[in-house]
Specification:
Elements: E1 3-4, E2 15-21, E3 25-32, E4 37-44, H1 48-51, H2 53-70, E5 79-86, H3 92-105, E6 109-116, H4 117-125, E7 131-136, E8 140-145, E9 151-155, H5 158-161, H6 167-182, H7 193-203, H8 212-216, H9 221-225, H10 227-238, H11 241-247
Parallel strand pairs: 2-5, 5-6
Antiparallel strand pairs: 1-4, 2-3, 3-4, 7-8, 8-9
Length: 252
Amino acid sequence: MPETSSSNGGIGEDLFIGVEGGGTSSNAVLLTGTGHVLASSAGDTTNMWNIGIPATCDNIMQMVNDLRKSAQLEDSHQISGIGLCLSGADSESENEKLVDYLREYFNPAAHYIIEADTMGSLATALPDLAGIVLISGTGSNCVLRNPDGTQIKSGGWGHLLGDEGSAYWIAMRAVKILFDHDDNYRVSEFNIDSLRRHVFKFFNVTQRSEILPFFYSPFQKSAIANMVGLLYVHSLVSKHPLIVNITLNYFV
């Protein structure tokens, strides 16, 4: 459920919405031009590469509608601008498609700005937008932005081409170690029983073949990434060398 400010002031002013979109979940705020927060809301992933542009816009609009309801805005009150800092929003052409779709089917605001999630982090910490930001969540990305606006990017290419150091990357390697070991393709030097037990417990399965739907039909990146929390807690408690290597050293 969205949270609201105790004050409902500023409704007569120009209002703006900011969306921070991740690969697993997203957050949005409604605020005045002076920065007074009127409402906040949480929603699902807004990574267009994972779920497509229509579903991404649907999830954005779920948060927008929650914000409007919480702030008790009249239907006629148009939002002046919406800023979208989204995971995966690195392609100008795809960003334009998303904004066009959002405007055509929903039109939640008068003006739109869309950037990658790295830019939102930079703007939060460094007002001059110059510095380095490293994101390691469901996926991963790293960007260096110079004072003149030029950027150098490392990573951020998604689960097929990158995501090193992310929760999905770690979880995927844990599953791959298990599969390779049981297939006698790449036998682990460590006892595999503890890893197998925790992987099966997380996916609620009794055999490896039952894990396949999470990876293929449909692919559930955020669900797979969530396994890292279970493995991390186990590594702290048991100190099992294989689990520690996977979760703390990112070692395969």
